[in-house]
Amino acid sequence: MKHLIRAAAGALLIPALAFAAVPAQAQETFRIGFVNPDRVLREAQPAKTAQAKLEAEFLKREKDLTAQGDALKAASEKFEREAPTLSESQRVTRQRSLVDQDRDFQRKRREFQEDLNARKNEELQQVYERANRVVKQVAEAEKYDAILQEAIYINPKHDITDKVIKALNASVGSPAPAAGK
Questions:
Q1: What's the gap between Cα 85 and its chain centre?
Q2: How many Cα neighbours within 13 Å face the side chain of 124?
Q3: 3-class DSSP state of 118
Q4: How far from chain centre, in Å, is Cα 107?
């Protein structure tokens, strides 16, 4: 049994020693980089521009919804105060009206959220595509073999996020190339 273990250990050491015997010049270095996509979306100018565009586009609808919600809340509170003094038919009529208003408000709020999410996804997709092109350019220019976007741990010396953000910010004035190029 000891003989078998020594033979197996010897078989494992031979390839390791052979690799160690290869001259340092013959060994090719593997360069790896890391990009933090969350930081890119927070700090890059194209992402900030997209966020501002979305806020401007949806600001009026959001204000309208807030006003409608406030009015509905005020009407509901008024109904609660006046309900004991109302006749049965008046109470039922106002209650139905409040339920209809609430249903309409909930529908508008849901539509607003769906529209906002769809537009946000469109804008983020454009930012991601642009960022990925910049990451590829940085990787090719600096001869990286791999760029990671997610890792449990990464040595800060491999983090190229700042370079990507700077390149994205520098490209703000230039038009984005057509898709597929």
A1: 53
A2: 11
A3: helix
A4: 26
Residues β-bridged to residue 33: 147
Rounded-to-10 torsion of CA 123, 124, 130, 136 = -170
Closest CA to 49 of 170, 135, 172, 161: 172
Q: Which helix (H) or strand (E) holds 170?
A: helix 161-170
Task: Look up tokens 């406030």; give the residue.
Answer: 70
130 phi, psi to nearest 5 deg: -65, -45
Q: For residue 142, what are its two tokens?
A: 């600096």
Model confidence at 149: pLDDT above 50: yes
pLDDT tens readout for residues 34-74 = 999 999 989 999 999 999 999 999 999 999 999 999 999 99
pTM: 0.66
Whole-angstrom Cα Rg for the chain: 31
Residue 119: what are its φ and ψ, rounded to 5°?
Answer: -65, -40
Q: Is the dihedral of CA 9, 15, 16, 20 positive or negative?
A: positive
